Amino acid sequence: MNLESPKVTVQKSAQDLFTLLTDVKNFEQLMPENIAKFEVIGEDAFIFGLKGMPEIKLKMKDKIAPNKIVLGAASDKLPFTLVTNIESTSETSSSVKLDFEGDFNPMMAMMIKGPIGKFIETLATNMGKL
C-alpha cells in the first residue's frame, strides 16, 4: 500500500528543514491534535499513539542530506516506511512530500488507508510550524 501526502511549501531552506526533521523530538510539533502519546526513546526513535489506534514506534532508517529522510516501523507487526522528500525551491523555502509505503494484507490496508492518509497529510501540513 502506497500513500502520498500533498506537496507542501515550507518557508525554510531544504537544509534547515532537513536538520529540524532529523531531530526526532521535533516530530511532536507535527502530530495531529488527537495525539494520545508521544515519547522520544532514543536520538533516532520515538513512539506515538493516536486515539483509537495502536502505538507505533518509528526509527530513523536513512538520511540523505538535505533531501531525504526515511523513518521505518521498529516492529515487524506493521511493516512500513515513511519517506520525507525535500526539494529546495529557493534559498529560504522548500517543498516537502511524504510517501508512506506499507506491506499489509488487503483487509488491514482497507482499515488503515483513511486514517494513515489523513495522518501523513497532517504531518505535511504542520511542517510550517517547525
UniProtKB/TrEMBL annotation:
<dbReference type="InterPro" id="IPR023393">
    <property type="entry name" value="START-like_dom_sf"/>
</dbReference>
<protein>
    <submittedName>
        <fullName>SRPBCC family protein</fullName>
    </submittedName>
</protein>
